[in-house]
Amino acid sequence: MPLPDWRRRRVSQSALAFVGLYPLLLGRAQAQAASAASCPALLNHVFPRLQDDAPLSLCQFTGKVVLVVNTASQCGYTPQYEGLERLHGRFAARGLTILGFPSNDFGQQEPGTSKQIAEVCFNTYGVRFPMLARTSVLGPSANPLHAELTRLTGQAPRWNFHKYLIDRSGQVIANYPSRVTPESRELVSAIEKALGPG
Prior knowledge:
By secondary structure, the protein is an alpha+beta fold. Helices cover 39% and strands 15% of the residues. It contains five helices and six strands; from the N terminus they run αβββαβααββα. It has helices at residues 5-38, 80-91, 114-124, 144-153, 185-195; strands spanning 46-48, 55-57, 65-71, 96-102, 163-166, 172-176. A four-stranded mixed sheet has the order 4-3-5-6, sandwiched between helices. A two-stranded antiparallel ribbon has the order 1-2. A hairpin with a 6-residue loop joins strand 1 (46-48) and strand 2 (55-57).
C-alpha cells in the first residue's frame, strides 16, 4: 500500500535531514577517534573530579607539561597547595597543568568527604588547578595513573605531595619527594626546560 503524500514528504525530509547531519556526525566521530589515538598511553585515563564527580579525561592535557601530585588536607606538607597554585598561575599560560590527587594512603591524613577536601583546596588555599576525587596512589589498590607512574619510574610515592613531571609527549621525565617544594629551583628548572622557550 503506497504511503500518503504527507507521509512521503515527512520521510523524505527526515532522510534529507539525516544526510545533511551525517557529515557533521561522521566528522565528530572521526575527531574523537583521532583524539583518542593521539592521546599518550600515560594520560589515557578518566577520573572523577573532586567538586562534582564529573568524569575528567586526562587526554585533554595532551601536549601539555603535567605535574601530578598526591595531596592531603591534614599533612605538614599541606601548605604546598599555596606553592602549587603559584606555580599554576606562573606557568599555566605556557602549557603547565597541575593535577591534584587527594589520597588517604599516608598517615590517614585525608579522611574527609569530597566536600571537606574541596573546602580545604578551593576555599582555604584558593586552588584553581584540576583536583580529582580521593583515590589510592599506593600498592595494589593504586589508581591506574599512579600504578603506571610507579612502574615507569621505579618510585612509588613515599608520602603526601610526591610529584611526577610528565613532558609534552606524555613521557614521565622526573619525580620528586615531598620535601621538594613546588617553587624549589630544582622543580621550577625542570618545568621550564620541559615547557621550552616561551
